[in-house]
Amino acid sequence: MTDGLAGRAERRQHIAEQAGNSSGRVFQAIGSSIEVANVTKRYGPFCAADDISLTIQPGEFITLLGPSGSGKTTLLNLIAGFQKLDSGEILVDGKPIHHVPTHRRGFGMVFQSYALFPNMTVSQNVGFPLRMAGMDRETTERRVAETLEIMRLSEHALKTPSQMSGGQQQRVAIARAIVMRPKVVLMDEPLSALDRRLRESIQIEIRELHQTIGSTILFVTHDQGEALTMSDRIAVLDAGKIVQVATPVELYRHPETRFVASFVGESNLIEAEIVQKRGSTMTLKNKAGYVFNAESRNAIDVGRATVLVRPERIAISNEPASNTTQATVTSAIFLGEILRIEAKMESGETLLIRCSDIAGRAMPSPGDTIHVSWGAEDCWVLA
Ligand SMILES: Nc1ncnc2c1ncn2[C@@H]1O[C@H](COP(=O)(O)OP(=O)(O)OP(=O)(O)O)[C@@H](O)[C@H]1O
């Protein structure tokens, strides 16, 4: 886990060449497409998946993100075949799969609990699916060695799970999930039992693994930071429905609803009046008369609106300047690389500000007056 990015790329190329593939992809691009069409799942009167539709591209890394109880695991279980859907259809590479039992779907799976066999070595754990599939010994050994190398586990091959850390055990579980070279890998909160630093390092490993193996990965998490770091696209769930599907950048910058704006990243939601509209640019005025411009592609009429301003996009100054509005500091905390300030605007709304321009800046104190502003490109009018 200590080699740099260049070293990792070289290692990937080396493993790929040994596997007879000069493209740098060990398992080639083998990911399947998944089409979830109008899927509904009820538990008694309770609807855990409510008419969900989602198209996942071959080889895509897609994350289901949502608060506890929003239906992420239900949707993953329906795709895995652990649960039966009440209505709708799930297609893999264009073929319906809801009559195919879980073990015939050929998906790799990783869960929060590592579920390793305690009495087997790492090699035996990883080779288990190959032996079950009746693969010959020579191919099994080669595949296991290759997979252990990808997961940086070669030196642990003869250990048993109890001789390994939580992070290493989860890497064994991931190795076991990919050893069959599955077209789809399903991961349900695989990192939530690990501490923050380990989680961040395995996030990067899983992301690189995805580039190496080319499988479609469906990843479940309630951690928005994890989703933003890892995914090609994120599907946000709330109360059994998908509320937005977008790339991490699009989701962060242009959330479609208040729920997505608040759930993904920290946000300030400011009430204002749209006073003028020119294409996608609008001029707004807040309750205290501060006039600013903002962008939105949503169909919005002149009138009241909610504007998202991310805390790191707010500029502050000690002196009034053109087009700033006044605010009173209520708290200021030094967090090392940034200052985290809360300030009450004249409108009565509280602003959260993350200020990274701290060199030479005096630490504000509660009660200080500051002047805040933001540009049109820094805020977003919600639909
Ligand atoms: N077997 C079941 N019987 C009854 N209700 C269930 C069952 N499984 C899930 N539910 C309910 O369905 C809803 C969605 O559950 P699900 O596990 O899919 O949510 P989740 O988003 O994965 O949550 P978490 O992040 O807490 O795991 C919850 O309200 C849950 O209580």
Automatic annotation (TrEMBL):
Lineage, uppermost ranks = Bacteria, Pseudomonadati, Pseudomonadota, Alphaproteobacteria, Hyphomicrobiales
Q: What does the record give under GO molecular function?
A: ABC-type polyamine transporter activity; ATP binding; ATP hydrolysis activity
The species this protein belongs to is: Mesorhizobium zhangyense
Report what the protein is called: Spermidine/putrescine import ATP-binding protein PotA
Listed under GO cellular component are: ATP-binding cassette (ABC) transporter complex
Recorded hits in InterPro entries, A to Z, give: AAA+_ATPase (IPR003593), ABC_SmlMolc_Importer (IPR050093), ABC_transporter-like_ATP-bd (IPR003439), ABC_transporter-like_CS (IPR017871), Mo/tungstate-bd_C_term_dom (IPR008995), P-loop_NTPase (IPR027417), PotA-like (IPR005893), Transp-assoc_OB_typ2 (IPR013611)
Cite the PROSITE patterns for this sequence. Answer: ABC_TRANSPORTER_1, ABC_TRANSPORTER_2
The record's EC number reads 7.6.2.11
Q: Per its UniProt record, what NCBIfam families does this chain match? A: potA
